[in-house]
Amino acid sequence: MRDAAAAVDVDVMVVGAGQAGLSSAYHLARAGIDHVVLDHAPRPGGAWQFRWPSLTYGRVHGMHALPGMELTGADPLRPSSEVIGEYFAAYEDRFGLRVRRPVDVSAVRAGADGRLLVESSAGTWSARALINATGTWDRPFWPRYQGQETFRGRQLHTANYPGPQEFAGARVIVVGGGTSAVQHLLETAQVAAETTWVTRRPPVFRDGSFGEAEGRAAVALVDERVRRGLPPQSVVSVTGLPLNAAVRAGLDSGVLERRPMFDRITRTGAAWADGSRVEADVILWATGFRAAVDHLAPLRLREPGGGIRVEGTRAVRDERIHLVGYGPSASTIGAHRAGRAAVREIRRLLTGPTGLDGAGGSSRGTSRAGVSASHASGVAYT
Questions:
Q1: Which of 21, 113, 217, 378 is the right S-S partner for 17, CB 3.0 to 4.6 Å?
Q2: How far apart are CA 219 and CA 234, in angstroms?
Q3: In 3-state terms, what secondary structure has residue 169?
Q4: Is 3 left (phi over 0), alpha (psi -120 to 50) or beta?
Q5: What is the mean pLDDT of residues 101-123?
Q6: DSSP sequence for 35-74
Q7: Which pLDDT tens digit goes with each residue over 306-342?
Q8: Closest Cα partner for 41 from 138, 123, 108, 124?
Q9: Burial 320-348 (b: 16+ CB within 10 A, else e)
């Protein structure tokens, strides 16, 4: 543990500078709350900067604008990592969001006088509240199956998927039932010798439009799990897979013909209990991600069910902690709304009877992220 006496005081610490973190920082700055934003990535762009080159902006599965600045005129054929990385960089610059990077946060602990100690590779901060916006990209989920360690081919996860070009002429098994798995299959099948799709459950394809009412219903299902203290599922897991033209073509061609999950992995592929086998050179695990919240472990926020129970964005076990981009706010539009909601609650916490000044404002009245009045005046803070 770092020396608490050397910790730098700040009202609010934001950990993560993706969609959720930048949205939160924007609203903190507009509320005049002193804060610091830490991000472990080398440059702006959040997790988007690590996406594979073949995921062009036009193929992105929904991208909602950050508050106060639209993303317009983007070339749909450019890699999403470039488009969104540039957008986030411009956003940070326009609103003066001085993100400190690359900084790794190792632990958040209870400190003295009701404060939180945030330990990082760049020192220790003492904060009154914390917005955790670390997302999931840093915790790819790798299922374990018998014989997995004996496989002589290549195994990789969506998190380090390089694009289809490396699988030319290869036999590829894609594991997973989400949109990433479908995208991997559709593009890899164009160059691979053979592809096989396996999932634990039969995929559900969604035909027709997906409007606001459907979106609210899907988010409500995810929210219900989080309120029970269970690990969150993605919103996509309850919405189904969109049945667009590319997916229809994949179904018609047989590329998206799904097989049930194999029972074990062999040295040269996979095997099922019925005796059938598939030979493979590559197993691509498109099996999703888990929330990157290990640094919060010292606060003991997890419930017996394995998740962190939240009301809105506030951790039930510690009102100083808000999780933005967690569970129901994991979508880009959800992160925007959750950032604003978290700042509302934090403002009440800091200005209450035991808060900073009891008068509705930060004791410092300034923000280390610094949004100018001219930038903020065009958006109502409601």
A1: 21
A2: 9
A3: coil
A4: beta
A5: 97
A6: EEEE--SSSSSGGGGGS-TT-BGGG-S--PPBTTB---S-
A7: 999 999 899 999 999 999 998 767 666 677 789 999 9
A8: 138
A9: bbbbbbbbbbbbbebbbbbbbbbbbbbbe
pLDDT of res. 359: 35
Identify whether the C-beta of residue 272 lies closer than 8 Å to the C-beta of residue 198: no
- C-alpha to C-alpha distance for 348 and 47, rounded to whole angstroms: 31
**Bridge partners of residue 230, in order along the sequence:** none
pLDDT for residue 214? 59
User: Cβ neighbours of residue 139 under 8 Å, at least 6 residues apart?
Assistant: 289, 290, 291, 292, 294
Express each pLDDT in 363-375 by its tens digit: 343 344 433 322 2
For residue 125, give the 3-state DSSP assignment.
Answer: strand
Closest CA to 286 of 99, 141, 127, 152: 141
Residue recorded with tokens 């439009």? 209
pTM: 0.85
